[in-house]
Amino acid sequence: MTITITTAPCCWGVDDITNLNLPDWRQVLDEAAAAGYGGLELGPCGYMPLDAGTVSAELRRRDLYVVAGTIFDNLVDPANRKGLEHQTRQICAVIAALPKPPLAPGQRFPAPYLTVMDWGHEARDYAAGHSDRAARLDDAAWRGMVANIRAIARIARDHGVRAVIHPHAGGHIEFADEIARITRDISAAEAGLCLDTGHTFYAGMDPVAVLEAYWDRLDYIHFKDIDAARYSAVMARRIRFFDACAEGVMCPIGDGCIDYPAIKALLNRRGYAGFITVEQERDPLNAGGSLADLRKSRRYLETVGFARPALEATR
Fold first, then answer.
1. SS3 of 35, please?
2. What does 187-223 look like in DSSP terms, one character per residue?
């Protein structure tokens, strides 16, 4: 089993590219490398330049690679189809041309991936983590979302990129019934899953049980940790997901309540090979703490057995 730990720009508060407080993307590359991560995600569309030559040069300067791109947008609205397809072509054209991530023996699909997340619905945002409050899509709207995801996945595949559906707090694929439904309606041949320990916990599920239940669909994993006291506090309020993150509900891995020794035992038993991306959403105004927190998360993961592998990379 060979696992490589990477990170993502959301650890610096990069989720909304219209936010004027985002750090420069080259600072994110500098600090990802300084924290000991060999690779990272591209971040939301437009954060890093959509120019493979520019990004490649900066990655090579720091001995980094990009493990995934991201679609983080309204997947439900049929009128958004053209925009989603345009983003997908832009992102996949860039990530497919960047320095290649390593390929581990036993890894199901080579990176880079395209993580596909639904976002942009106010009512669901305020219901994040509350399955009983969250209105589900009707059948017609669900079919429209499925059609949009299939279109994204087809374009990604044409670029040699594996699309992975990412259940996300505050989106229309968040809770247990929605994960079950999307995996019934979109086959493994069309798209895999990127399961996130933090989002599954935030949505009231056991991350170990969810990883086990969807093992046959799992191509890529995100690691987060959750501060139990802050989680309890935000669950008692009406609050948007990213506002909860700005209040520190996400914490360095090992400081929270998610059972990472149990997750490591599951990955060992199942023989997971490939990538795990460490994330810790925050307000970008607090990005001054990102480097220290990422180092802390990486050190903790080493204590529970996630060593720094020297992969025989296929680049």
1. coil
2. -TTT-EEEEEHHHHHHTT--HHHHHHHTGGGEEEEEE
H helices present in the chain, as ranges: 25-34, 52-62, 81-95, 122-126, 139-158, 176-185, 197-202, 207-213, 228-235, 241-246, 260-270, 290-303
Taking a C-beta distance cutoff of 8 angstroms, is the pair 225, 250 a contact?
A: yes
Q: Which domains does the chain have, with CATH numbers?
A: 3-303 (3.20.20.150)
Encoded tokens for 154? 């087809």
Angle between helix 52-62 and 81-95 (nearest 10): 50
Q: What percent of the chain has pLDDT over 70?
A: 97
Express each pLDDT in 59-74 by its tens digit. Answer: 999 999 999 999 999 9
CA distance to 47, 224, 275, 294, 309, per residue, from 16 (Å): 9, 19, 24, 20, 33
As a whole number, mean pLDDT of residues 178-202 equals 98
- Whether the ω angle into residue 167 lies within 30 degrees of 0, i.e. cis, is no
pLDDT in tens, 199-235: 999 999 999 999 999 999 999 999 999 999 999 999 9
Angle between helices 176-185 and 139-158 (to 10 degrees): 60
Residue 99: beta bridge partners? none
Q: What Rg, from alpha-carbon coordinates, does the chain have?
A: 18
And the tokens for 96? 């497919």
Q: What is the pLDDT of residues 257-274, one digit of tens each?
A: 999 999 999 999 999 999
pTM over 0.90: yes
φ, ψ (nearest 5 deg) of residue 228: -60, -40
Question: Which tokens sit at 129?
Answer: 């983590």
